[in-house]
Design a protein that fits this description.
With 203 residues, this protein is of the alpha+beta class. 25% of the residues lie in helices and 26% in strands. A hairpin with a 2-residue loop joins strand 3 and strand 4.
Amino acid sequence: MKFLQGAFFYVLIFSAQVLTAQNTYKKEIEAYQEELNAEYRDKDKSPLSRKERLAFKGHDFFPIDEKYRVIAKFEPTPDAKPFPLGTSKGTTKIYKAIGKLHFELDGKPYVLEAYLERKRFTIPGMKVYVFLPIIDETTGNSTYGAGRYLHYEGIPEGTEWVIDFNKLYNPYCAYSDNYECPMVPEANHLPIPIEAGIRGPEH
């Protein structure tokens, strides 16, 4: 009986720890979502017109789901060549794949490529952003038709990178034709729905 009581006690402790971790993660994503909403209300940062900002009630997000926070194995691709990537304006920008990110979702393996814009990695002192755009099976249905973005500020250290699809956001081109947004390379077309992050561009 004492053994059963002890086991039950440890199960309760473990369950409480899991619940605490889940609540902490949910609060992290909610804070990110509010930060994104605040950016769109800010006249100095928002792609929205003044009229649109006044009417803006916040983005529509998928429910927060921690399964969409995955640990990916980063495989560097040092021999990758810079390539022209088309934009929403019909022009091109030069990018380079710096590596492949291998991850699993629902027990199945997938790969995404991570990119740097050549302009940024050739100008000394310019802040580096690792670009991680995706198209998935929600694209053009419940999400923006040209795909969604993730990015890293700086290049993460080590070979384990976190991909958090709950932080997927739209390019500014979803809201205004005044912007020039890179298209999503074919290598980053995922054959599954990623029901996480931001939904369509309604505002």
